[in-house]
Design goal:
This protein has about 200 residues and is α/β, with parallel strands linked by helices. It has three helices and nine strands, in the order H-E-E-E-E-E-H-E-E-E-E-H. Helix content is about 30%, strand content about 35%. Strands 1, 2, 3, 4, 5, 6, 7, 8 and 9 form a nine-stranded mixed sheet that branches. The longest helix is centred in the C-terminal third of the chain and has 24 residues. This is Membrane integrity-associated transporter subunit PqiC. Pfam families: ABC_trans_aux (PF03886).
């Protein structure tokens, strides 16, 4: 009789747990975003003679070195958009976009990353200090801040350095709109960077 009561009680507890599990909300689907571009693809215009540029992956904080889409909703609190991520870590996305822009610019014989086992005439080393959306007066603004150093590929002597800061307002608060603003800001960074590299 006691065993029967214990079994009945255990069964009731088990059924209760199962029913509780069934009413838990389903996991929110995770959306992965590519870094968009507003610039038309450039035709390859590599000169017959010209320097080879190696663009190294920017160094960054641990938070930025992830696929999370960083956001500062207020004050000094930094977070990330729920249910959304980049297709790769932010520094890698930025490096690849800059290589793409340099390749098509016609300023270099070739533009490569540190993964290519090739010799380069110039190295672009950088620190990614900001790659996030910041809320300003209730509206998100994408901020990209990059410290760049151009170094000789052989001696590693620094030839030039500059800080770039891009601020691109988003058209709205939706994640898709913020992602588009990231693309616009990155395109503007690429344009300014190429202008700087073209200086004698």
């Amino acid at each position: 009789m006691i065993r029967s009561s214990l079994r009945s009680g255990a069964l009731a507890v088990l059924l209760g747990l199962l029913s509780a599990c069934s009413i838990l909300p389903e996991a929110e689907p995770l959306r992965a975003y590519l870094l968009p571009t507003s610039v038309s693809p450039l035709a390859r215009k590599a000169p017959e003679q010209g320097p080879t540029l190696r663009i190294l992956t920017p160094q960054s904080s641990r938070l930025l070195a992830t696929p999370r889409i960083a956001v500062i909703p207020e004050g000094s609190q930094i977070s990330s958009y729920r249910g959304a991520r980049w297709s790769d870590a932010a520094p890698i996305l930025l490096r690849d976009r800059l290589i793409e822009r340099a390749q098509g610019s016609g300023q270099f014989a070739s533009a490569i990353s540190e993964d290519a086992p090739l010799q380069a005439d110039r190295d672009l080393v950088s620190q990614l200090l900001a790659f996030q959306a910041e809320y300003v007066e209730g509206r998100p603004v994408v901020v990209i801040r990059l410290d760049a150093q151009l170094a000789d590929g052989q001696s590693q002597r620094v030839l030039a350095s500059r800080r770039f800061e891009i601020r691109q307002p988003s058209q709205g608060r939706e994640v898709d709109q913020v992602v588009n603003a990231f693309g616009q800001a990155t395109d503007e960074l690429g344009r300014q960077l190429l202008e700087w590299l073209a200086q004698p």
